[in-house]
Amino acid sequence: VITHTVAAKMIEAAQKKAGELGLAASVAVVDDGGNLKAFARMDGALLGSANAARRKAYTAAVSGMSTAKWFDMVTGNTALGMILGTGMEGVLFLPGGEPVLIDGVLSGAVGVSGGQADQDAQIVDAALAQIG
Amino acid sequence: VITHTVAAKMIEAAQKKAGELGLAASVAVVDDGGNLKAFARMDGALLGSANAARRKAYTAAVSGMSTAKWFDMVTGNTALGMILGTGMEGVLFLPGGEPVLIDGVLSGAVGVSGGQADQDAQIVDAALAQIG
Amino acid sequence: VITHTVAAKMIEAAQKKAGELGLAASVAVVDDGGNLKAFARMDGALLGSANAARRKAYTAAVSGMSTAKWFDMVTGNTALGMILGTGMEGVLFLPGGEPVLIDGVLSGAVGVSGGQADQDAQIVDAALAQIG
Amino acid sequence: VITHTVAAKMIEAAQKKAGELGLAASVAVVDDGGNLKAFARMDGALLGSANAARRKAYTAAVSGMSTAKWFDMVTGNTALGMILGTGMEGVLFLPGGEPVLIDGVLSGAVGVSGGQADQDAQIVDAALAQIG
User: Fold this and answer.
1) Residue from B23, B46, B91, B116 to probe the interface with A (highest A Cβ count within 10 Å)
2) From C128's CA, which of B94, C37, C121, D52 has a CA 20 to 30 Å away?
3) A52/A28 Cα distance (integer angstroms)
């Protein structure tokens, strides 16, 4: 599982990377139940980024799939996206959410919102690098 | 009506079929009021499958129509799907939900999420076979 | 305003017309605040018809516009329909909801769900005929 | 921040402009937390305008972006609009919501619903003119 200590390190690493990119971002870490374990909204981050980061993490946790893959799938099939978007509570199919695997087991997820898709991805990667 | 005993048999049969297919699925049975009567999320099933199975069963129960038919209708008419998806609470238009008819009367529904559409359909069929 | 007595007559007239058409329908009457004033779900009507009738009436009441007109507008502009469908709580853009005008003033609405669009419209008309 | 006094002046100016245009509108002012600070629904304004005005203001506040820009973006990319519309609570991507900047800092927003897009924009401008 993702301990509180690990979750805090993930948040810290993500914030550091966001700072290096000159961004103010929201970062969310959820556990294997999809529930929030740690969260930070950096000073200056838009209010909307909080919801987005949390939903990206939740989406990755309950599906075991990157939200970047969801985004590609959904933009390629609007009808399917509409079905899933209105039928699955709490999801957001924007890039920036990645599942966390520990010893190959889906153990939670991290979600980031604050920059462009490639910037959010870099911040996510910084968080994932804290997983042993 | 779908008794607790019958609902439990439906869940058991569905889980057995899922196991044979090498899948971990969620299975939901709702009564003629659309309310959950029995439910199981197998070990290893994604968190998102729970919501999906419950919504598929609910959709079939309140409409009296297979969610596979809803899926075909909605993907063929995105505007209609958008209207219905945002205007009907609790629905999900993905295949895997079937109404339960007892003596020709709509008595509830079963919903499954865990595999591809044809796999979910086989699991649904295993559950429906428990209806006398 | 729509009194309880008038609302009850509207429901009764609508049910009578539905019966003549061989349909089991849900009928909802809302007041000038968009709140439910009277409602009936006929025996045999699908569960989903209750939500649909209530939402159609609500949509007509808060917009002052027929849901048949909303349906035409939304199906002709899916992006607009998506914006409105996800951004306006409680609405449903399917035909079968009509505002009630008393002395030219928007005073509430009636919504019907149970048959095809033209059948629902006939049932709505029967209800509206009760307005002096 | 937007003080209560300033918010009240914004509402008053907006109502005055709406009256000049012969419209009955709803006007909402939200603070830097996206929460309602002041609101008015003019006599005769449709019920639906209240929700719309509040959501437009909220959308501008949490994104720091005009809802007119959101509208253009979303109508040009329905898939993205669907993702955002279903995944971001409380938003509405219709023109008529503008962020309020005080000394260059995002400090809240104003939202208007009552007329055509260009009319709502004039009413929004009247409210924004109250910001020093």
Assistant:
1) B46
2) D52
3) 9
Q: Is B87 within 8 Å of chain C by CB?
A: yes
Cβ–Cβ contact B86 with C under 8 A? yes
Sort out which chain D residues have CB atoms less than 8 A from A43's CB and list them: none
Dist. CA C121–CA C129, nearest whole Å: 12
Q: Which chains touch A (3 or more CB pairs under 8 A)?
A: B, D
Q: Is the pLDDT of residue C132 over 80?
A: no
Encoded tokens for A115: 């920059």
- Do residues C106 and C32 make contact, with C-beta atoms less than 8 angstroms apart? yes
Residue A108 forms beta bridges with which residues? A100
Q: Which residues does C41 contact at the CB level (< 8 Å), separation at least 6?
A: C26, C49, C50, C53
Q: Are A15 and A27 in contact (CB under 8 A)?
A: yes
State the Cα angle at B36 between D85 and C113, rounded to 5°: 60
- Give this complex's ipTM: 0.94
What HEC string does chain A produce?
Answer: CCCHHHHHHHHHHHHHHHHHCCCCCEEEEECCCCCEEEEEECCCCCCHHHHHHHHHHHHHHHHCCCHHHHHHHHHCCHHHHHHHHHHCCCCCCCCCEEEEEECCEEEEEEEEECCCHHHHHHHHHHHHCCCC
Q: Which of D52, D47, D46 is nearest to D28 (CA)?
A: D52
Say how far apart CA C8 and CA C2 lie, in whole Å: 10
* pLDDT at position A132: 74
* Chain mean pLDDT for chain C: 97
Among chain C residues, CA nearest to D56: C87
Say if CB C56 and CB C94 are below 8 A apart.
Answer: yes
- Position B31 pLDDT exceeds 90: yes
Interface contact C63-D85, CB threshold 8 A:
no
The pTM of the full predicted model, rounded to 2 decimals, is 0.96
Tokens coding D22 = 């012969």
Whether the CB of D46 is below 8 Å from some CB of chain C: the reply is yes
Query: Cβ contacts (< 8 Å) between C81 and chain B: which residues?
Result: 79, 82-83
